[in-house]
Amino acid sequence: xxxxxxDSSLTDxxxxxxxxxxxxxxxxxxxxxxxxxRRLVVDTISYVLASGCAWRSAPRDLAPWTTAYRxxxxxxxxxxxxxxxxxxxxRVRERxxxxxxPSAASLDSQSVKTxxxxxRIGYDAGKRVRGRKRHVLVDTLGLILGVAVGSASVQDRPxxxxxxxxIRRAFPLPELVWADGATSIPRTPPSSTGRADKRRRxxxxxxxMLMWQAFRCCPAGGWRxxxxxxxxxxxx
Length: 236
Hints:
Elements (H helix, E strand, L loop, with lengths): L11 H7 L19 H14 L13 H13 L2 H16 L8 E10 L8 E3 L4 E10 L5 E8 L4 H9 L2 H4 L5 E3 L14 H25 L19
Helix pairs in contact: 2-3
């Protein structure tokens, strides 16, 4: 049994689940023999994403940051992370006795400060935040269905339209999406208090995911310019 070197490192049980889902070929070395194992490379990627550190600041006892970054970029471009996340989400839903295809979802957004410049920096007047905004769509278990990262100046309605555009191809079944008032959902009749409470619970599933991302995946300097690995969505 291999002892994880860091809190972000995969355990043996986790690696047994993830390994079959990863490409056998190593995108950073072409046809040459691998010097560093795939597991060590994945542990390096996990460390950078969990800690929010710069790639160059990855610990020396992990894989070289150049190798880890090339693998990360290649697997992002070819959709590997997306496929891994989709498979794992479907397994969790099936284990919970649900259909792999969600029939309902929850949508929310969050603006985060960033010290970096660029065209995707904007000002959210409502939250008084200068930086970027992330729109997140999750199922009723809080599992991510889609993410869009863009300027904080993007309003919730356009952001919602952007993340929902094309989502039907991947998730054709959802007939209901919970959202807050900023995304223009119908008002709940006074007699439907039970449905209103249920809507709030669904919304908190999404906000819980946003808070988890903020504490675990958001570097102090600001949110990453691109959606996280494995997110289905587009830059706003």
